[in-house]
Every structure is written in C-alpha cells, then in structure tokens.
What we know:
The structure is a single chain. This protein has helices at about 1-25, 40-65, 80-85. It is mainly α. The mean pLDDT is about 85. The chain has one domain. It contains three helices and no strands. Helices cover about 70% and strands about 0% of the residues. The longest helix has 29 residues, at about 40-65.
Amino acid sequence: xxxxxxxxxxxxxxxxxxxxxxxxxxxxxxxxxxxxxxxxxxxxxxxxxxxxxxxxxxxxxxxxxxxxxxxxxxxxxxxxxxxxxxx
Length: 87
C-alpha cells in the first residue's frame, strides 16, 4: 500500500505541474511571457525526478527481498530489472 500511495502522490504532483504550466501559457501554447514562474516549475520537476528515481529503486529492492531467494534469480525477472534500473 505504501508504494500505491506514493504513486498517487507522484501523479497528482505531475498534474499540478502540467496545470501550472498551462496556466502560465494561457491560450498561446509554448509561449510564456513571464519567465519568473518557470523557476518554481523547474525546481519542482528536478526534485520530482530525483524523488521518483529513489522511490523506484527502493520499491524494486523491497520487491526483490519479498520474493526471498527467487528474487535473486535472473529467471524471476526482478533481478534483471534491478540490474538495469539501479544504475
């Protein structure tokens, strides 16, 4: 349930960012007249990227551990995901 609730947090944060960008653009898509509002959006997106990367690595590791010894085997698919993603 922890990871499901985190997925909702990430989703609603992403929606806030898209809505905020649409509000700053107005009717002219791609043209932003006031660049000062972009700083908050840039900082939020950079923080969200690092947060979601961390949440995904923790989630993969918990999934692998919950499968016991099978989580370490390559045929489970979890170990290959961990090897690819954790880099």
